[in-house]
Design goal:
Blueprint: H1 5-26, E1 31-36, H2 44-60, E2 65-70, H3 81-87, E3 92-95, H4 119-130, H5 134-137, E4 142-155, E5 169-171, H6 175-183, E6 187-189, H7 193-201, E7 207-210, H8 212-217, E8 226-228, E9 233-241, H9 243-247, H10 251-259, H11 263-278, H12 280-286, E10 290-292, H13 296-319, H14 324-337
Helix pairs in contact: 2-11, 4-11, 4-14, 6-13, 13-14
Length: about 350
């Protein structure tokens, strides 16, 4: 192949531009991301979700984005983490929207009883569905992704029937679970996960709705010994960013964040943590705890008893200008397509 002087000059120019782009990317101004959450630093989600995500971000940004973690409510209470991201107290936060009941009605769909069966595909389904609403409902922040875990009732006395909850004091996982417990005649005890063991040990609560392994990681296995074997509810979580922090990033850094705030990561984190949580059931059984089995007839009774909660959610969606029935049908279809519905 014969090269002319013109073609050679073009090749040199193209190479120079490519080198320049590489150097510019490599020299993006280093930034720190303050990532706040309220779990213990050694919690399984920290090891299976937060840390792998952060390492991937640092690698993809050639080290220009460093993630510094602030666990265990160091920067604020669990219920405040959405506002902490909005206000720049942290650059990224891990949020349980259900800790502020009624504030985020659309994502509360993921909390509905007996809706989601599998945490990995369930997380991917919820995340994909919620992206239709996130920019409106969480407009104060930059939405990254959503995921879930699945939980049940853990109690001082065995629970098999919904009627047993009447008169009990129950620490509920989120606003929708609180509605469910109220419907069934229980009194809700509103404390965050880090405060739950204390509430149980002091008799403030008789039972708790929680995922399986976190019963162990939060030390709640010392306070309750009976665990009802059903997929009662899911808890929704979102990762959100401070808009001002994101807007100041270089173009290459923004792409790194965008590539880590997607549906793939929602599914990865949901599976990694959710499967770890589900594994706690076997651990508790080995410790001699009572895994309370539910018959098909008992499960049908539970599902019938909590059906009004679905209608309550539909009405809450209608109030914000969304066709609630269509939205819930759409979420159920997304879950079904991924084998994650109940």
């Amino acid at each position: 192949m014969k090269f002319t002087s013109t073609s050679a000059m073009r090749m040199v120019a193209a190479a120079a531009l490519g080198l320049c782009a590489t150097v510019l990317h490599a020299q993006d101004k280093p930034v720190e991301m303050k990532f706040a959450h309220w779990l213990p630093g050694a919690h399984p989600l920290a090891k299976t979700g937060f840390e792998p995500w952060a390492k991937s971000v640092e690698a993809a940004s050639n080290g220009s984005i460093k993630v510094a973690f602030f666990p265990a409510q160091q920067l604020g209470k669990a219920a405040d983490h959405y506002d902490m991201a909005r206000d720049g107290i942290a650059d990224m936060t891990w949020v349980n929207p259900g800790y502020q009941a009624g504030r985020f009605p659309m994502i509360a769909a993921g909390e509905l009883p007996f809706l989601i069966s599998k945490p990995g595909p369930g997380s991917a389904a919820l995340d994909k569905w919620y992206r239709n609403y996130a920019n409106t409902e969480m407009k104060d922040v930059k939405f990254c992704f959503a995921h879930i875990h699945v939980g049940t009732i853990h109690s001082k006395k065995p629970i098999t029937e919904p009627g047993q909850l009447k008169g009990m004091k129950i620490r509920s996982a989120n606003g929708t679970v609180s509605q469910t417990m109220s419907l069934l005649g229980a009194t809700n005890v509103q404390v965050s996960a880090p405060e739950a063991r204390d509430a149980l040990e002091k008799g403030v609560a008789d039972a708790i709705t929680f995922p399986w392994n976190s019963i162990i990681s939060f030390g709640i296995d010392k306070a309750v010994k009976n665990h009802t074997d059903m997929r009662l509810y899911a808890a929704d979580f979102v990762w959100v960013l401070n808009k001002g922090w994101y807007d100041k990033l270089a173009a290459g850094q923004k792409k790194v964040i965008d590539d880590h705030c997607n549906n793939d990561w929602a599914g990865k984190v949901g599976a990694a943590w959710g499967d770890e949580e589900d594994a706690g059931q076997g651990k508790l059984e080995k410790q001699g705890h009572n895994i309370v089995k539910i018959t098909p007839q008992q499960l049908d009774a539970w599902k019938k008893a909590v059906e009004p909660i679905n209608q309550q959610w539909i009405e809450s969606a209608n109030k914000v200008g969304v066709n609630g029935q269509q939205a819930l049908n759409s979420l159920r279809q997304e879950l079904k397509s991924r084998g994650a519905g109940q």
